[in-house]
Write a structure and sequence with these properties.
By secondary structure, this protein is of the alpha/beta class. Among the domains are: 1-58, no CATH class; 71-139; 171-263, no CATH class; 378-433 and 450-593, 2-Layer Sandwich (Nucleotidyltransferase, domain 5), CATH 3.30.420. The protein has helices at 69-92, 96-107, 115-151, 155-163, 172-201, 204-217, 222-244, 248-256, 265-286, 292-304, 309-322, 361-369, 375-384, 405-410, 462-479, 511-522, 558-570, 581-593, 633-644, 648-656, 664-692, 713-718, and strands spanning 21-22, 29-30, 45-47, 54-56, 348-350, 357-359, 416-422, 426-433, 442-451, 486-491, 496-503, 530-538, 549-557, 577-580, 602-609, 614-620, 623-629, 697-704. The protein has a 6-stranded mixed sheet. The relative contact order is 0.07.
């Protein structure tokens, strides 16, 4: 009897063509071409995990590629189970992102054999996402609480709270806060040990420093508070004793050691008194020249320290010194403290007068009222008289850049010339008369200072600034008849772009092209926007060979130059030359110092402190170099506005008359940043010059300009005594 399909009643082997597919679930034998069980509907076939060809589910090996299908499926299930286990471990360590990634990969498994694992993973995903959000909120709350604890100086508690946040949930800010707290706690521990050791050894300064720092880190530190009080009382007592001995500098050092948190009213009053007297004594003993400001300092000192015979003697000596006449021909101020060199070892003086110029008696009063303020104007007038070292200048719109050279060949040398220095605060005008003899002195026939209604730096806009300048020029014309005198006007150093370089021996015919190329390379502004010219100086050489050449290039924005020319025309002022203030000062220096210093490679520096900035000009017989930086008298005035709650006019008055306040030392404490910036820029300028001309030796520095009247500026230039 033959077996019936679907009803297996014998173990007799059937022909291959008649063999059916047994269902793995119900064991029903199905026809060979069935894809699903005719009894239960279960799929009878699957894709080979290796070659993807269709095969019976009951087959152990793939009939197409021979793959061990059951082994592959078993290993895949083991892998998915491993991912579930790893996800559970990651969840325990709060590494939710990695755990969720594993769960999502398990949930995407498509094999029927692994459907239960995929279903389990799919159930875990929303559960884990919820937990992730809850733990993140807890971490944020813990970090916020730790921040509160840190602000209340509970560092240890804050650290414990932050350390309790699982690493994966800890933000960058929280991690940084932990590092800061650990560093702070370690510093506190080190300071506590240092405080104990220094207190036991009697090292008061060290103990005071440790206590102060401890209180900065933790104002509630009991040990530091207790010791700070003890140190305050001890230091206060010692400081009072030093005051009684007249040792104010030592008393000031002792009071500086008192912790800021322990400075009561008594300490503050004594500190103010000691600081003021110490500053007054220092200024009286170190100021380079005798001035009225120094006399005010001496008078204030004798009031505060009436019991000091030494201070009384110094004040009387100063009064007598002020009645003397200065021996130096270039300064009208009598020396006071012993002169010192600058920090670079170069002598520094305050130049207020001239030697090669003859100042007319009628001009002397105005000249002395504005010490060192007319030198730029003198340099401009010297060029007008054709007595200048540098004769090139900017075009005025009526001639070439080389001022009236052709005319000077056809006519006699001018007999008089005006120099108009258009500063930020005022117009300084000087009229020079040519010497009657070749070796005679130039005569200063007139000098005038015309203040603007307000500083040019306070002008609302360019039109307002030009209107202020025009008003000053109009006033100048009302006061003075220029006649046939030539007129030179300055261009502010803040408007000038200067470049200084040199060439090896080069033929004169090739110089213009070489200078043009090098200037364009050095000045980072399109040259069609500039008006520029250059000055050459060929150095001496041996024999008939050409020597090297030094070049000084000056450039100014063309639109600004046109503004100045238009301004002069509107003011009906016939200006013959426009020159930079830096080059005008060089011309002044070369005429005034002549052969001083005598060497071709020895130079003199002029530090011209104006209202809006400072011009530094370094001049030698074979070179010129200048630089302008924006630290001037106004910079010091601004330092006084906010601390003393003053208007600009009152701050300017306080700067000039510091004795009008109760504590002079405080005025100069507020000026300290401006002093430091001024010295930084000055030192930087000298360094720049050394880089350009390393072979030039600077012999002397002169401070000039109205800003030099600021008490303390000359002392800073000279450096520590």
């Amino acid at each position: 009897m033959s077996p019936v399909m679907g009803d297996v009643t014998t173990n007799e082997r059937l022909p291959a063509s008649l063999a059916g597919s047994a269902c793995l679930d119900c064991e029903h034998l199905n026809a060979p071409d069935c894809r699903f069980c005719a009894n239960c509907g279960t799929p009878l076939r699957q894709a080979c995990p290796n070659c993807q060809q269709e095969m019976l589910r009951a087959a152990v090996f793939c009939g197409h590629c021979g793959t061990d299908v059951q082994g592959v499926l078993r290993r895949r299930r083991e892998s998915l189970e491993g991912k579930l286990a790893e996800a559970a471990e990651l969840r325990e360590s709060c590494q939710f992102e990695r755990a969720l990634a594993l769960l999502r990969s398990v949930a995407s498994a498509s094999e029927d054999l692994n459907a239960d694992l995929a279903e389990r993973a799919a159930e875990l995903i929303p559960e884990m996402e919820t937990e992730q959000r809850e733990r993140a909120r807890e971490a944020v709350a813990a970090a916020a609480r730790a921040e509160q604890l840190m602000q209340s100086n509970q560092g240890k508690e804050a650290l414990e709270l932050l350390e309790g946040i699982p690493g994966p949930l800890r933000t960058v800010e929280a991690q940084r806060a932990m590092e800061q707290i650990r560093y702070k706690l370690q510093e506190i521990a080190d300071l506590e040990e240092r405080l104990r050791e220094s207190a036991q050894a009697g090292r008061i300064p060290e103990a005071a420093e440790a206590a102060e720092r401890l209180l900065q880190l933790n104002p509630q530190h009991v040990q530091a508070q207790r010791l700070a009080v003890q140190l305050r009382d001890r230091l206060f007592s010692r400081a009072k004793k030093k005051v009684s001995e007249g040792a104010y500098a030592e008393a000031a050092k002792l009071l500086d050691m008192v912790a800021a948190s322990q400075r009561d009213e008594d300490v503050r009053k004594l500190t103010d008194y000691v600081t003021e007297v110490n500053w007054l004594q220092t200024e009286l003993r170190t100021c380079p020249v005798a001035t009225k400001t120094l006399l005010s300092i001496a008078e204030r000192l004798t009031e505060l320290n009436a019991g000091s015979d030494a201070d009384q003697r110094l004040a009387k000596n100063l009064q007598a010194r002020l009645k003397e006449t200065a021996k130096s021909g270039r300064s009208r101020y009598v020396p006071w403290a012993k002169a010192t060199d600058s920090q670079a070892g170069i002598p520094v003086d305050w130049m207020t007068d001239v030697q090669r110029f003859q100042v007319h008696p009628a001009v002397r009063e105005t000249w002395n009222q504005h010490p060192g303020c007319f030198f730029t104007a003198c340099g401009l007038a010297l060029q007008g008289l054709e007595l200048a070292d540098v004769d090139t200048c900017f075009p005025t719109g009526t001639g070439t850049g080389v001022f009236d050279k052709l005319a000077s060949r056809l006519k006699r040398r001018p007999k008089a010339a005006w120099g108009l220095d258009m500063g930020a605060g005022s117009l300084k005008a000087v009229r020079l008369a040519a010497p009657a003899e070749a070796d005679g002195a130039v005569l200063v026939e007139a000098a005038d200072e015309i203040a603007y209604p307000k500083d040019l730096t306070l002008a609302i806009d360019e039109a307002d600034r030009l209107a202020l300048m025009k008003q000053a020029l109009t006033t100048f014309q009302e006061r003075h008849k220029t006649g046939d005198a030539r007129i030179g006007m300055s261009i502010s150093g803040t408007r000038i772009l200067g470049s200084f370089f040199g060439f090896p021996p080069l033929d004169d015919n090739r110089l213009p092209e070489a200078v043009d190329l090098e200037a364009r390379r050095r000045i980072p502004i399109p040259f069609d926007e500039l008006a520029w010219h250059y000055h050459t100086r060929r150095l001496a050489s041996e024999g008939d060979t050409l020597g090297p050449v030094r070049i000084a290039v000056q450039a100014v924005k063309r639109f600004y130059l046109e503004q100045l020319i238009r301004l002069c025309k509107e003011a009906q002022l016939p200006v013959h030359l426009l020159q930079s203030s830096g080059m005008a000062l060089h011309n002044f220096a070369r005429y005034e110092f002549h052969n001083d210093p005598p060497g071709d490679h020895q130079a003199t520096a002029l530090v011209d402190v104006g209202a809006s900035g400072t011009n530094i000009v370094i001049s030698s017989p074979t070179s010129v170099w200048f630089r302008n930086f924006g630290v001037g008298g106004n910079s010091f005035t601004k330092q006084l506005l906010r601390p003393f709650r003053l208007t600009r006019d009152k701050a300017e008055l306080l700067k000039r008359r510091p004795a009008s306040v109760k504590r002079l030392s405080r005025v100069y404490e507020e000026l300290e940043p401006a002093f430091n910036l001024f010295m930084e820029e000055t030192s930087r300028s000298l360094d720049f010059h050394r880089e350009v001309y390393p072979e030039i030796e600077l012999q002397r520095i002169y401070g000039i300009g109205g800003g030099m009247q600021l008490h303390g500026l000359l002392s800073r230039l000279r450096g520590p005594s």
